[in-house]
Amino acid sequence: EREVISLFEKFVDYYLENKKTVYLGAALAVLLIAIVTGLLIYNKKLGEQAATLQYEGYKLYHNLYQEDGKKADEAVLKKALEKFQASYDKKKSPITLLYIANTQFALGQNKEALKTLEQFTKKYSGNKDLLPLAYYKIAAIQMKEGRKEEALKTLDALYNLKTSPFLKDVALHDSASILEKMGRKEEALKKYEQLAKEYPQSPYYQLAVSEVEKEAEKKMKDNDNKENKKNNKDTKNNNNKKKTTKERKP
């Protein structure tokens, strides 16, 4: 009991001797709590405002204001873009940034869309759900502009993403399709073979298998034709030799 009283007396003595410091510390603690509380309320308010703006942009982008089912015109898309940008300014969000890029692309602003998507790949490189979509959209824009080699590199980057398993089969399929259009059949076939081997659950699996089998049948047919031509040539040569031998007989 005496020890408790002694401890209390020491605390009182410290308080009396350091009254100013104690008051200052208490004031700072109260101020810190007020600042943290204020920031939480402010962030919550910003989040609510950003969510509202994002939803308004979403409705415009997906034509939820239009009952006739017609595609959104340029004015509507521009308004949607403004809402998405305002939402992103209020609160940074990967899905909002992706919507900004998609809307820019829909408006034909390819350069701006690519810039936004490149920003996305750097800022949200760890977002395994949305990062593949950003890479895929970049490849789509590059293809639309006829930059096939760049599109192939982007699709390779998508396939080699270590942070996400998504859209890898799509990357292989689209790469094969581009290579076919470029006349690079052997490279395209390798992509189809890889797709068939690694992604049996892919919606592109049957197409890949079909392309591989078709190429195998073609090669077999070509080999048969070559063999037949060779046999016909050998037969013809043998017949000519026999004919020549008969003619030489007295």
Automatic annotation (TrEMBL):
SMART domains cross-referenced by the UniProt entry: TPR
InterPro entries: SecYEG/CpoB_TPR (IPR018704), TPR-like_helical_dom_sf (IPR011990), TPR_rpt (IPR019734)
Keyword Transmembrane helix set for record: yes
Residue span, Ancillary SecYEG translocon subunit/Cell division coordinator CpoB TPR domain: 14-196
Region (Disordered): 213-250
Keywords noted in UniProt: Membrane, Transmembrane, Transmembrane helix
Pfam families in the record: TPR_21
Protein's name according to its UniProt entry: Ancillary SecYEG translocon subunit/Cell division coordinator CpoB TPR domain-containing protein
Species for this entry: hydrothermal vent metagenome
Phylogenetic lineage: unclassified sequences, metagenomes, ecological metagenomes
